[in-house]
Amino acid sequence: xxxxxxxxxxxxxxxxxxxxxxxxxxxxxxxxxxxxxxxxxxxxxxxxxxxxxxxxxxxxxxxxxxxxxxxxxxxxxxxxxxxxxxxxxxxxxxxxxxxxxxxxxxxxxxxxxx
Amino acid sequence: xxxxxxxxxxxxxxxxxxxxxxxxxxxxxxxxxxxxxxxxxxxxxxxxxxxxxxxxxxxxxxxxxxxxxxxxxxxxxxxxxxxxxxxxxxxxxxxxxxxxxxxxxxxxxxxxxxxxx
Lengths: 114, 117
Known about the structure:
Strand content of chain B: over 45%
Strand content of chain A: over 45%
Number of strands of chain B: 12
Number of helices of chain A: 0
Helix content of chain B: under 10%
Shape of chain A: globular
Oligomer: heterodimer
């Protein structure tokens, strides 16, 4: 158990809908990262927050947005869903320790868009 | 731009044997970190080992060691004494350590390892 929690574990929704994925980082970790893992695209970095502020942006679509709240939990909002958005969405957290910055991943949310 | 290449889509290895998973990277950054993660069939991503670009010694964590060859831009993972539980997908990843973009991780396509009895 990495200490990172993600809810829900599974989500099935229809095209055009909007969903919110939630992540709670490990205790003490200030950084939260979101990733999308699909068969054709592999593991893609979406966005990173550090102590409530956006720090880095990857291949995140404009239909997707995220935020990190004062209690450090984060939410990833996916809107106008398309079939191609079906994927496993991971949240990871890390703490700035020495120079490693290793990430600890949550169990993921499997999103199926029908 | 950074790029991570894992050329081995899949490998079979016999129990108790060692296996080397290849990873090459491309970056113009001077300061970066290299990581290996394991993803079993259950789906979770497990951090295995880290190597900093300025580290002179190869990183080791138990049965995992990272063969870091900076001039060749390679960061191969060696798993010694393979166990059945090592069967999983293995990902190589890199992040640069410059202040303005230290959040960006990039992952390779992964190598599926199957350990046979």
